[in-house]
What does this fold into?
Amino acid sequence: MTVIGLFLASLFTVVELNCENLFDCQHDSLRNDYDFLPTSEKQWTTNRYWEKLNNIAREILSCGTDDRLPDVVCMVEVENDTVMRDLTRRSLMRNAGYEYVMTDGIDERGIDVVLMYQTNTFHIIDHESLRIRRDSTERPTRDILHVVGELRSGDTIDVFVVHFPSRRNGVKQTRDYRLRAVSTILERIENLAENHSILVAGDFNDYRDDASLQAFAEAGFTNATADAKGNNGAEGTYKYRGEWGSLDHILLRGNIKRHLQTTHINDLPFLLQGEEEQKMPRRTYRGNFYQGGYSDHLPLVATFAF
It folds into this structure.
């Protein structure tokens, strides 16, 4: 695209972020949220809750530019509507003009997924929650959030926000569960035209070469963030046993692929801790020890020009 063409185009920025246990301080009935209460070993107090909210606000706002905020933020590991209301109405983000839609699923801990958006650049046409089929031995997992929206350019896009089933019981043992999550999305879009714009973003609990990502590739999706890097040393969104990797991804299918401009990992210095090879995301807790950080995942950022 020429400089003039880029100037005339409508820029659109998508952020994906696993917020790492963005819980309030109240017990939700029938939910295992006991780790995030003032009486827990983590001592999740009101002060820590508000520090976390303001940290997440800073992290998201830093994904924009001096004159542009992110248009859409796909958020993972958010407990409930109370948290999102506090984030958008009472935190440092309160004047940023964001609205949101979210799931209300059956995850045992009560965490859900969210799409937060700027109302002047993204108009929601419809939204729904999709439940992933499971057998009696599998733990309940997060619903998939499906949002149909219209951009300021007039383009329509289907967005799916995901937090796929955990690998906790073993990668091979839980692989089919994640593949069923893929099938849930593919079944939902099977009647859409091949050129229809679709974006899937979130924490897939799989790396780029794992089965669920390969299933998406076979269905015509491109992993837009497969090679995303940060500007301060991050080679993935997450660090496990000293190695960078990405369980977070932004996948594209249809016309939206030709509008993609750039992708990167936001690893600004204030989001990191450690020196050189020891750098890692500045997280909220290490075990039960409060770190006062942001998240154990770094944000993915994708910019489009429509």
In short: The first helix runs from residue 3 to 8.
